[in-house]
Amino acid sequence: MSHDGLGPRAxxxxxxxxxxTVLAVPLLAACGSDDQAGKPLAAQDIASAARARxxxxxxLHWAVDxxxxxxxxxxxxxxxxxxxxxxxxxxAMYRLDAAGRPRRDxxxxxxxxxxxxxxxxxxxxxxxxxxxxxDGREIGAADFAAQWRALSGKDSAYWTARNAGYDRIEKVERxxxxxxVRVTFARPYADxxxxxxxxxxxxxxxxxxxxxxxxxxxxxxxxxxxxxxxxDRKAETVTLARNPRWWGRPAKLSEIVLTAVPREDRASAxxxxxxxxxxxxxxxxxxIETAAxxxxxxxxxxxxxxxxxxxxxxxxxxxxxxxxxxxxxxxxxxDEQQTDDEQQKSDGEKKSDDGDDQESSDxxxxxxxxxxxxxxxxEVRRSLEPAYTQLALNGSEGPLADERVRRAVARALDxxxxxxxxxxxxxxxAEPVGSHLALSGQAAYADNSGALxxxxxxxxxxxxxxxGWVPGGPVDEVxxxxxxxxxxxxxxxxxKSSSSPKAGKKDDADDDEGTYIVGEDDKGHRAGGGDxxxxxxxxxxxxxxxxxxxxxxxxxxxxxxxxxxxxxGTAAPAGSASGVLAKxxxxxxxxxxLPSGEGSETLRAVAERISSMLVKxxxxxxxxxxxxASYFKDHIASGQYDLALYSWPASAFPAxxxxxxxxxxxxxxxxxxxVEQNYTRVGTDQVDQLFDRAVATLDEDxxxxxxxxxxxxxxxxxxxxxxxxxxxxxxxxxxxxxxGAFGFGTPVYEDMGFLKKGAVRDxxxxxxx
Length: 769
Known about the structure:
Elements: E1 59-64, H1 80-89, E2 94-96, E3 102-104, E4 109-116, E5 122-127, H2 141-151, E6 169-174, E7 180-185, H3 202-205, H4 208-213, E8 226-232, E9 237-242, E10 255-260, H5 263-271, E11 277-279, H6 282-293, H7 298-301, H8 340-375, E12 378-393, H9 403-412, H10 415-423, H11 457-466, E13 470-471, H12 492-498, H13 508-511, E14 516-518, E15 581-583, E16 586-587, E17 589-595, H14 601-615, E18 620-626, H15 628-636, E19 643-649, H16 654-657, H17 659-662, E20 666-667, E21 673-674, H18 685-695, H19 700-717, E22 720-733, E23 736-737, E24 753-754
């Protein structure tokens, strides 16, 4: 996420299949002017302020998901916090600007350019003459060479996560002086700007032992505006302090303390003054904004207040204290035998309990008022993450192995409606994503969705008919299967409902705890309740855009409940296709696998809306919820799904980062399929060739056109359908500037800080407009 949490080198996406018949799709969308890239849909929201207005000193308490297992960004278990630390303490030749495009970092690099292309590509780096490591040694060719050797893939003793780009280098050598580094490539490499960012010292990269273990628990040598001072795994904090050897603009903050705080606890930690900056969920964002405005009802909804997220422990639903109320005994027969002394004792206990209730009530009110006061110093900064949510279609087997069926699924979707569902309530631009390879504002972006076409029910039905799926005929009974991840257990949501006041009023829908099929009947059940009202937003005040997760292998956040199953749920909406589409005696039914857990409401709500769109063209979906821990590993990565929703980060270097995601699977010697990161298990030689040409083309315009052509073909194949860019909501102290919802941009750590007394920001936060 989280993005949530992935670095630019850990980008993964789903891939599509393209048959020869689709190669004739118009290439129009792939060619054109730079204007196609457009601008970011939402600007950064970081409360910008000139450095002169920022006070010197202070400590920023910043929430993160975890204390990292490693501080080596090139290892497999590196995470978002690994990358955050690296950005603050290590050199990077290039960083991303607000439009997601790489820009030279002048603190380290005076210049970098391709100086030769024949007979081989040569890039000459000229380093800043003041650039030194924290131990006083100059940054130079030895560090570049050590990193190349470690990441080249030639020595398996280095436990590296990837070697893309470094495997194309032939040699790294010193230039005319110590400030020049010459990198010669064995094969042309268009994405050379992606290399050496971050750059680790040769002490870390020089030997396999140093690489594998030397930077896992600490970073002894750094070269950024901050240095790694302390890692406290018991307290779950990472402390960064000003680097006294930093030659650039000095950091305004004295320290940055990164603290691992679960999302559900962040609102209360912010209200208690324990955090200054934290990405939050929409429900918490609304409470913070309500309290900040001091509007009616703020007390009840303020973070930390009773009933609020992360707030005080709730009392029993009856309103009683934790002690047994003696009045509950009054109706029992043995009460008639109670002596006067016992009665007096009972009355005394009752009075005591009444006093406790009053004290508890007063305490809650006091805490709520304190939380509201603290929250008035907070605001929510909002933008869009450099990541998007997609619908993935597994084309390796079943109905979706037929490209016509995949295209029918895509043509049934109203992507604009899905974007509005998630983004409009947050006040963010609700525009569907038009590219698999970039987002609006990035150089490679162009809306190539026209190669597939927009929502068209008639066309979707025609495609299904052409593929042999027709109404009527004998249909075998569909058997629902329990979700993987703990057989026979109820979902967390189901467990909660069983203890509610209405638990005794059960209907047939409550008894069905397995998977359910959308479009199987028309009993009028809607998601979230049986009163006919659409309750997709949930009944706990949470907004749809609250999944807060990116389902990408090791980046998966834990916390789901094993064996969580979907409720009976959604029936076919009015006006949907009445006949079941069948082929060879089998109904057209797709397995829609979703994660369980309270943090995935968005994905489930979007899935329900998608299912209602599909049933209108005759496609039923069998929705199954699985534990969050097993969602990616046991279902997405292993191919045990037909439809799935998850988010991918966008890359500034799609020719490199998207290539393994769309690579054509190759049969292995043992008969299995080597898929790299192609989790839909389909691909073509043509798409591979376009990526190969793009990554080897040093003409930037030509490379961009090749990527857009590849994207047009991916759209036409309908193997993955980009839906919407993910929202980014960050709660921050009002006096904290140059920090917040960064969008595409790499944070400028040395400019972060707190406003001087009486100083004002340069520009008001968009959330305040």
